[in-house]
Amino acid sequence: MDISLFAENKLCSVVEVFSLGWEVGGGVGLAETIEGVGGGDVGGVSRCLLALDLIGSSYFAAEDLIWHKQVPLKVSIFAWKLLRDRLPTKANLVTRGIISPEAHFCVSGCGGIESAQHLFFTCGTFGSLWSSVRLWIGFSSADPQNPSDHLIQFVDAAGGRRARRSFLQLIWLVCVWVL
Question: Where is the Reverse transcriptase zinc-binding domain (predicted)?
Fold first, then answer.
């Protein structure tokens, strides 16, 4: 399911968003049910979807973490595009018909398909940055493949201290920008 349809069409009704291609199981029947509960606008329905457990709360939690007062706006926008899989990776360019399917391999030469998940988290060349950063900071964890989950887990590794969380948030944003 592509949650970005909600973000891109905030003023549409839920039924209209479903007609753009977002379906979960029951299709428009579910949309009408949600619209009746959520009041009809997409902005109010997100909470309803979370209550129904149709979308993960990590998507919204990560949204809040990409905006940091010590980071240039262009870095936060880049992270925003990463969370929504809107970066011009070769996989996305193939999907949009901009490059041929034969040209979808990672720029590092590792042989993987160049998607955001691959470049930032699983590529042996670029994704290995995270283990070095964790070693430098002094914590260990497994890396989720999903950018939203990765950001949340990375920032939450600090525990509850606000200053440390802000520091890790800053480090994550700088790392994805550099990659």
Answer: 63-130
- Output the CA–CA distances (angstroms, integers) from residue 167 to 61, 66, 156, in the order listed: 17, 12, 11
**pLDDT tens string for the chain (179 positions)?**
455 555 555 555 555 555 555 544 444 444 444 444 445 555 555 544 444 444 444 445 677 787 888 889 999 999 999 999 999 999 999 999 999 999 999 888 888 999 999 999 889 888 888 888 888 888 777 778 788 888 888 888 767 677 878 888 889 899 989 88
CA distances (Å), origin 92, targets 9, 63, 95, 101, 130: 21, 21, 5, 10, 23
For residue 106, what are the contacts with CB-CB under 8 A and spacing of at least 6?
90, 112, 113, 114, 118, 119, 123, 125
